[in-house]
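Long-time lurker. I teach an intro course on protein structure, and each term I like to show students one example going from raw sequence to a predicted 3D structure in token notation. This year I'd like something fresh instead of my usual example. Would anyone be willing to generate the tokens for the chain below so I can use it in lecture? Attribution to the forum is fine with me.
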Amino acid sequence: MTAFPLNPVDSIWWRTDRPENLMVIECLVRLEGHLDRARLALVLQERVVDRFPVFRRRPARSRVPGGLPRWTAIDDFRLDDHLVEVRLPPGAGDEEVQEHVGRHLGQPLDPGRSPWEVQVLEGHPDGTILYARLHHVLADGIALTRVLLSLTDAGPDAPVDAGPAATSVAAAPRPSRPTSGRSVRARAAAAATVRTPAVLAKLLLSRTPPTRLTGQVTPGKAVVWCEPVPLDRVKALARRTGATVNDVLAAALAGALHRYQTHHHAVPRDMTTMIPVNLRPLDKPLPRRLGNRFALVLLRLPSGTPEAGARLQEVQRRMGAIKRSPEPVLTFALLHVIGLLGESVGRGLVRFFAAKAVGVTTNVPGPPEHRYLAGTRIGGLLGWVPGSGEQAVGTCIFTYAGSVHVGFKTDAAVVPDPRRLLACFEDELAAMLDPAPSTATSGASAAALV
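-- Reply from a regular --
Happy to contribute to a lecture. Here you go:
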């Protein structure tokens, strides 16, 4: 294929890459045993590199002043340049894996190669860990999750050349989504309703106030994650309260932010997070050129509310308002316009909108059953999309095989104690799932944290 231009939205993520917040999506796949690297290479070549041409191309500046960047072919492309084996230190556990990932979060991908890399981490006592770094210019997080899941199979003995996996993945919240150019225009027209002025005011006028989780970010980052939580327990709470699983987990995040602020003797305030909304039909194959097709909505978490039950009710109300609003359509249109503007103007607008949130939260329902990668069973998955501007907190919630996996990606300068934030989330969710009089409110239990 000859060179072809990036679409306007893809160009945003390529042009806004900067050392303080690289536009790289970070993914971890935990495997329950040793991975056959040779078989992985065959599957990766067959199901990803050969299927999606952007995985063997790199972006380059347009030859026309002011034009969009182009995907150009790499004549000497070699899969081995993108598939790296790493031996962890003897006795390494999760903490060493987190340190390894943290050292790479501020390192840009090689600009002379296609912007992705897969590291095979060996030496963990539980099995092999796959660490994938994929630049946002390739595609949005939901599309790349589908690409990664297409490497997996229902059993250990599937042939390498099997077709695309029948995987389950979606984005939350889930309003009705446009699925074609015609429906995008129809939804855009429908957005000219009484709700539109309020949504525009939210997008243009809101701003994140100074808190314990805001500040000037640096290239230094860290990742932490908790033990998997049984999904059945979260569903049981959702049924008892008339909420959704997404509502419960968002309320737990709000409670964690409340606890974290209280621990640092700050007055708890509401904080806004950005949530990606998929705009691509999930029942159709991904296009060969992939690309970004998603919107971002702003969810103001009730982290200033002291009582857990009230937080859950408020999350339900706010999430419901987003689902009924034209916000996804409007933000997608804004992204498209920003992508058509010049590089300096685009960067400025991205920073302007990024300042409205402390970070990005992804909540992805993955496959309900265990999957296998190159013959080895997958035990868990995590993935973080990049933040923009001065965003310092990324939250990943990934549901897989009956468990909820949660992790944080934080800026080292703004959040010097990411394990404290993780402990706040663990304590909050535990209190919500099994409430007791002594933990009825996060304000009471936060004082007991050390």
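Some talking points for your students: Residues 245-263 form the longest helix (19 residues). DSSP finds 13 helices and 17 strands in the chain.
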